[in-house]
């Protein structure tokens, strides 16, 4: 079977500032299939942006395994990394302004990544128009960022990220600075890109409504994937279609599963627990020998 488009195993990123060490990712596992669109959620500081910048090839992992579209992110020359950033991934940064250039028009900024990738001039002009139309901002071609709304700027940012036909699109809080209605429209553009162009998309978001818009929402806690919510459509007893959200814990390759904090507290689980295979499930019980607090 072909490997998934994004595979992270026990991914670690440690930042060292002076004598202080921050473990932004502490053994994160994530698999995203080709053509999937997933949302990544988690509290502030949980490691979402760190993960995205590693996947974008902006930053390098400290340890673990990370493969994206056939590239090994832990074993890449500087030249490979540049090529990867230009052609394999599209990255939309958290602040809209960081994706654009104040003195360039929308058409010029979408053209830029193609010029850097040495695409012939005649292809570029046509593609700039097609891309701006595709994300609904054809009318902004000659405008600079200051002459566009936040939603229009974000659409142009999406067009920039798509310029070199990336296999993977990474978006860090693309709707964070937008009102509810504009957010829904921008999210709609990302969904269309995913459906129509088959681009694999990972979107970081704080918006609790996103799980209703994607098939899979992955939660990150303390630099690890903690749970996943899958959205499924099933048929209710009255014959109507109903959307069901089911939450799953994530197990890593070594078989480790994180027990949710509220379960630990409810059963007063301590360092040692009793595990038992019971027919079709595994049970976890408190250790009777351990003194209860
Ligand atoms: N360049 C850096 N140097 C040192 N520490 C960093 C750096 N970047 C991130 N961190 C730390 O790593 C941890 C994870 O940060 P990250 O930005 O990935 O979180 P996040 O989940 O994206 O948060 P938010 O939702 O607020 O954007 C935090 O403790 C943060 O302070």
Explain the overall architecture:
With 293 residues, this protein is α/β, with parallel strands linked by helices. It has 2 domains: 6-231, P-loop containing nucleotide triphosphate hydrolases (Rossmann fold, 3-Layer(aba) Sandwich); 259-293, no CATH class. Helices cover 29% and strands 31% of the residues. The protein has 8 helices and 13 strands. It has helices at 48-55, 78-88, 96-99, 106-116, 121-134, 150-162, 180-197, 261-266; strands at residues 6-17, 20-32, 37-41, 63-68, 71-72, 89-92, 168-172, 200-204, 216-221, 224-235, 241-249, 273-278, 281-286. The chain has a 7-stranded mixed sheet with strand order 6-7-8-3-9-10-11. The protein has a 4-stranded antiparallel sheet with strand order 2-1-4-5, covered by helices on one side. Strand 10 and strand 11 form a beta hairpin. Helix 4 packs across helix 5, helix 4 (106-116) runs parallel beside helix 6 and helix 6 (150-162) packs parallel to helix 7. The longest helix is centred in the middle third of the chain and has 18 residues, at 180-197. It is globular and about 75 Å long. The N and C termini lie far apart (49 Å). The structure holds adenosine-5'-triphosphate. Adenosine-5'-triphosphate (ATP) binds at residues 15, 17, 22, 24, 42, 44-50. InterPro entries: AAA+_ATPase (IPR003593), ABC_transporter-like_ATP-bd (IPR003439), ABC_transporter-like_CS (IPR017871), ABC_transpr_LolD-like (IPR015854), MacB-like_ATP-bd (IPR017911), P-loop_NTPase (IPR027417). Keywords: ATP-binding, Lipoprotein, Nucleotide-binding, Transport. This is ABC-type lipoprotein export system ATPase subunit. Residues 6-247 form the ABC transporter domain.
């Amino acid at each position: 079977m072909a490997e998934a488009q994004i595979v992270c195993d026990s991914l670690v990123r440690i930042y060292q500032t002076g004598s202080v060490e921050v473990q932004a990712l502490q053994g994160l596992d994530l698999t995203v299939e080709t053509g999937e669109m997933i949302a990544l959620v988690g509290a502030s500081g949980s490691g979402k942006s760190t993960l995205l910048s590693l996947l974008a090839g902006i930053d390098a992992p400290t340890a673990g395994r990370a493969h994206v579209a056939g590239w090994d992110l832990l074993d890449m020359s500087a030249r490979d990394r540049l090529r990867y950033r230009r052609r394999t991934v599209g990255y939309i940064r958290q602040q809209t302004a960081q994706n654009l250039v104040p003195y360039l028009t929308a058409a010029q900024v979408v053209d830029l990544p193609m010029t850097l990738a040495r695409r012939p001039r005649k292809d570029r002009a046509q593609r700039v128009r097609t891309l701006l139309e595709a994300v609904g901002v054809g009318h902004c071609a000659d405008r600079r960022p200051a002459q566009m709304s936040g939603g229009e700027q974000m659409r142009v940012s999406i067009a920039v990220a798509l310029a070199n036909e990336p296999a993977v699109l990474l978006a860090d809080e693309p709707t964070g600075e937008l009102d509810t209605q504009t957010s829904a429209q921008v999210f709609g553009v990302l969904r269309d890109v995913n459906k129509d162009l088959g681009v694999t998309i990972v979107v970081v978001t704080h918006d609790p409504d996103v799980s209703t818009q994607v098939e899979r929402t992955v939660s990150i806690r303390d630099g690890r994937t903690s749970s996943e919510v899958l959205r499924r459509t099933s048929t209710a007893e009255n014959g109507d279609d109903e959307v069901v959200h089911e939450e799953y814990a994530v197990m890593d390759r070594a078989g480790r599963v994180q027990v949710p904090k509220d379960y630990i507290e409810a059963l007063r689980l301590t360092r040692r627990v009793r595990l038992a295979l019971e027919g079709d499930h595994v049970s976890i019980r408190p250790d009777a020998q351990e003194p209860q607090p």
